[in-house]
């Protein structure tokens, strides 16, 4: 299918950037730039999804043909513009937040055990490239379709936008609440060992719930545009599903829960927190 072949330059850009950065940072065992590099990956691949078809059609060494992509292809449809703006806002905010945290802490604790193993640390950068490519699929696929193919925005699209906005607000608020809690703790305004207030009394990982909601909304906004063939719609579903699986079962919730159990496992307040506050969705389970 033609639309999948158009994804090749996007994939190449995602992996090329991360491997190029890995060649700089892996030999130095430097992990502070990891999340910032992921943010840069989303921005560059999004730009490639918009501009590559236009550039390729005009450069002979990239296989230019007589049917050059018109300038009008660069005038994004409202849906494409909203998806692109959303990913830029999300990337900029999250990338800056995580990078600031890593620099303040002097590194990223996730890589303490592997950053001195060049093979394993390189694998982490390859995993990030895969994450950038898969999670961004709703945006990339939408941008690879001519603007004229997209339907005007409808009620379902506005519902998708509302989900994106609400989830973004949830993620930002949860991060701000935890940062404020840490600052108060460091200033000795309280002696709580872990946060249980605000959104953190609604879910043990509300920021991650927001993350899943953002990409579910992105997929919905892209999927029902009428511009994508159903195989592309199904492929783009890997974004919210993959985000949920990775966060809930691999690199998000599990290590944090294990760390909490290691630190506070004998604390009655921790046991009560785990008993009374769901681990993820408020309607979900506690383990």
UniProtKB/TrEMBL annotation:
Keywords recorded for this protein, A-Z: Membrane, Transmembrane, Transmembrane helix
What GO cellular component term, any one, is given? membrane
Q: Where are the transmembrane segments?
A: 38-55
Show the Gene3D superfamilies listed in the entry. 1.20.120.1630
Per its UniProt record, what Pfam families does this chain match? DUF1295
InterPro entries (alphabetical): UstE-like
Query: By what name is this protein known?
Result: Steroid 5-alpha reductase C-terminal domain-containing protein
Query: What is the scientific name of the source organism?
Result: Paxillus involutus ATCC 200175
